[in-house]
Write a structure and sequence with these properties.
This protein is mostly beta strands. It has one domain: Beta-galactosidase, Chain A, domain 5 (Distorted Sandwich), CATH 2.70.98. The chain is built from four helices and 26 strands. It has a nine-stranded antiparallel sheet with strand order 9-10-12-13-24-19-18-15-16, covered by helices on one side. A seven-stranded antiparallel sheet has the order 11-8-7-14-23-20-17. Strands 1-2-3-5 form a four-stranded antiparallel sheet, with no helix packed on it. It is globular and about 50 Å long. The two termini are about 30 Å apart.
Amino acid sequence: MFSSNQNWKRAACPQHWPWFMCLVFWLLLGNGGLEAAEYRVTDSDTGVKIETPQLEAVINKKGYVSGVCRQTFLDKKTGFRDPGFGLDIVDWLMEPGSDEAYRGKLDKGLPYHFNDMVHGNRPKRSIEGPQICTQARELKPEVIRGKDFVAIRQSFQYRIAAPGKQVGSTWTQFLVFPVGKRYFVSMDRIDTVNSSDGLFLRIDMPGHIRHTEGDTFSEIYLSYLGGDKGLHIPSSEFSESFAPDARFHYLRDKNPVPERFIRACRLRDTETGKAGPWLAGMTLDPDVVYEAWCHQRGYVCMIQEFGARPIKAGESFSAAFVVGYFDSIEEMQQVYDEFKGATALNVTEDGWKLVGKGKP
């Protein structure tokens, strides 16, 4: 546990001391306003719990893994939690095209069906698996403790592949929780052992939304649809299931690349209906997003895919995100613009830094 010494300094500097003695004492200890604010890490056999003055979150080690565990992401300002199955959750490596010609030869978990309400009409095929969140079963999150942040690094090596493809591509994820913020910064990266004309990674961003007739949220905001002001979708639009490419669908090949790529839902109290904060997932380089869904299938499915450009074995691709709570769309935009253009995240005990296009 790292904590500010501010209160301790006040207690340790008696009021009867001359002011200059207190000043010297304070300077020797350092400027309390610049020191790390309080955070706590609790590491157990099942997961890692992170607490800051603004947030709580759990990263699972076993079971449903990757990203932040479902309904553990607590906004201490409002008392709201994420309403879905987790945040920045990770699936398979895929590419455009059908697997119908060899579907019968695929390992369980790799076949990809389409022309249905779950996956829509666009043919895709899994290149490596399994689906990390449900089938990896166990990850080993590494805790990185910084002065004013705490971070998680976790990774997984894919262990099954389509015919003619190699196994062993590596997924790496960083989750950085800066003290003083109501959001975390993350990155998902793939180091591939396969060449492809359009390899992409499928994730949930920010995460799916569980609800009953819209009781957990009042609206969804998609910055990349609906023109300059984005698209506001009332929860009533998700009362019945529809395919992912039927409505509210983004495809880089057909849609113009937007200025910002923000997906957010306005939470509300299920008992009182009182409005809560926005829970947003922001992809900091809009150009990396290949496809994004926002459709109803018993819950609001917020699948997002990034990459889908030619890549050779031995190369890598990544995307960087901000996920968290905001009081307004304007606040989201301000944070987005601060980090805009980043595609990767470097983290050591000395600090964290977003890098990528427009980022040194």
